[in-house]
Structure formats: C-alpha cells, structure tokens
Design goal:
The protein is α/β, with parallel strands linked by helices and 235 residues long. The protein has one domain: P-loop containing nucleotide triphosphate hydrolases (Rossmann fold). The chain has ten helices and ten strands. It has a six-stranded mixed sheet, with helices on both faces. The longest helix is centred in the last third of the chain and has 16 residues. The radius of gyration is 17 Å and the shape is globular. Bound molecules: adenosine-5'-triphosphate and magnesium ion. Adenosine-5'-triphosphate binds next to α1.
Amino acid sequence: MTAVLEATGIVAGYGEVEILHGVSVSIGQGEMVAVIGPNGAGKSTLLKAMFGLIPTSSGRVQLNGTDITNQPPDRIVARGMSYVPQTENVFPSLSINENLEMGGFTRSDGLSDRLERVYTLFPDLTNRRGDSAGKLSGGQRQMLALARALMLDPDVLLLDEPSASLSPKMVESLFEKIGEINSSGTAILLVEQNAKEALSLSDRAYVLATGENRLDGDAKGMLESEDMARLYLGE
Ligand SMILES: Nc1ncnc2c1ncn2[C@@H]1O[C@H](COP(=O)(O)OP(=O)(O)OP(=O)(O)O)[C@@H](O)[C@H]1O
Ligand SMILES: [Mg+2]
C-alpha cells in the first residue's frame, strides 16, 4: 500500500528533554490508523512532531512521498495534512462560519463550494452558521474543529483525542462522523483514550509506551488479543 504519511525513527521532545526515542508509524491512502497507549506515552508529542509544531532532531516525516520533516505547519497543511489538537481547536470569539472560512483561508478558489460540502457533512452546524463558536457544547465544538480541518480537503487528518470529555452519546456520534470522513477517502490517524472504540473503528493500530513503539498490527486482532486487553484496554 502506498503510504500517504510515513514517520520513521522520530526523535523529538521539549527543550533538552527527549520524549520520543525513535518512533515510526505509517498510514496508507484512505486508511484509518489508531495510536493508543498510556498517559504520557508521547502520543500528542508524536502528532506535534509530524505536524512541524516541535522540532524533530532525528528521523524523517514523509507526506505523499515528499520529505516534510521540520517544515512549518502552514506548508504542511498546504501539502495535504490537517491536524486537530485536543483543546483550543476552534476560535471561540468567531462564528461557526468564520471558523470554517479560517480553515479554508489558503484556498485560492472554491471556498464557497467547499463550505457547502462541509455543511452537508455536518448538518447540525448549518443552521447555526452565525452563532459564536464559544457558545457550542463540547461535542459540537469537536464537530466544528473536525469540520474546520476538512476545509482544505486533506489527504490525511491527525486527530488528538477527539472524544475526550464528551458524553457517551456524543462520543458515538463523533466516531460515526469520523468513520464517514474516512469512508469518503481521507486517511485518519486517530489518537484515543477510548482504545476499544478506536480499535473497532480502525484498520490498524500502534501502541506507544514511554516514547517507543510497543506493538502494532491489525486493529481487530488487537481488540481480540488477551495481552492487549490486560495491558491496554483496562480489562
Ligand atoms: N509542552 C511540554 N513541555 C514539556 N514537556 C511536555 C510538554 N508536553 C508534554 N510534555 C511531556 O511529554 C511527555 C509525553 O506527553 P504527551 O502529551 O505526548 O503524552 P500523551 O501520550 O499524549 O499522553 P495523554 O494520554 O495524557 O494525552 C509527558 O511526560 C509530558 O509531561
Ligand atoms: Mg495526549
């Protein structure tokens, strides 16, 4: 399978502190891949390193075969990768519509067509275009953050714990939406605390622990593995 995103031997951290000690992940075109692992494993750090938000001191990130290691996020977005951080992922003082326009601001054309496509995917946002994003519930805000990241029609989307602190019902509709986005052809790298749900939705998965690859493989197989259940699924 051709990799849309491939990170190889990533070493990164904060200042002098090395958090990732050579992590590798790859995502095929249109694939859904989960990254799970205990708190502090380095999952968010991996996303930040791949998206150019923190420096990678060793290793390589390739997007559609092009080396993007340590490129600034705006260049990476323009090349087809979007990222939804866990928090502060919308502009609360702007309206829903303005948030979406910001998401698509580098488009040279087709902004209004894309807006309508994204509203079709998120009908709940359509009637509230003018409402301020700060008034949305946690779940609606995650939907808006997802919608915003889709404005440039990315080849691959990085999601950092989209279900965190949502009600079970919201989690269900959010995962449904993530599945729909993936079915429409966008590859997704999903970091999740909700390991079971993430595995049932994904094609493959990686387990990270203490800044290293611990396990990887077919997601359904991992879901059924007793070792996995005991070590990482809280059973
Ligand atoms: N901005 C930062 N400055 C310094 N250290 C940080 C920073 N962000 C995270 N760390 C440290 O890096 C390590 C990995 O953190 P990271 O957020 O990547 O873990 P995680 O796997 O995403 O965990 P969680 O499941 O809790 O989100 C932790 O020890 C954390 O304390
Ligand atoms: Mg995290």
